[in-house]
Amino acid sequence: MKKYTQNLNCNYCGGDGYVQLLLGGSETCYACGGTGKKAKEKQC
Ligand SMILES: [Zn+2]
């Protein structure tokens, strides 16, 4: 049974920092910039 923990990883790449391309290979995730972490919302 898995523990349900708050996922702080990027929703787009799942924390890998890159995304798999359908055509093959991979590229840096534009959503997190390769960090794999969910982008923080800036508060003014
Ligand atoms: Zn990402």
On the 0 to 100 scale, the average pLDDT is 84
Q: SS-based structural class?
A: mainly beta
**Widest sheet: strand ordering:** 1-2
User: Could you state the oligomeric state of the chains shown?
Assistant: single chain
Total helical segments: 0
Whole-number tally of structural domains: 1
| Count of extended strands | 2
| Rg estimate, integer Å | 13 Å
Which percent band covers the strand fraction? 5-15%
Overall form: flat
The helical percent reads under 10%
InterPro entries: DUF5351 (IPR035272), HSP_DnaJ_Cys-rich_dom_sf (IPR036410)
Protein name: YuiA family protein
Task: Please describe what this structure looks like.
This protein is mainly β. It has one domain (1-37). 0% of the residues lie in helices and 14% in strands. The chain contains no helices and two strands. It has a two-stranded antiparallel sheet with strand order 1-2. A hairpin with a 5-residue loop joins strand 1 (18-20) and strand 2. The mean pLDDT is 84. The structure holds zinc ion (ZN). Zinc ion binds next to loops. This is YuiA family protein. Pfam families: DUF5351 (PF17302).
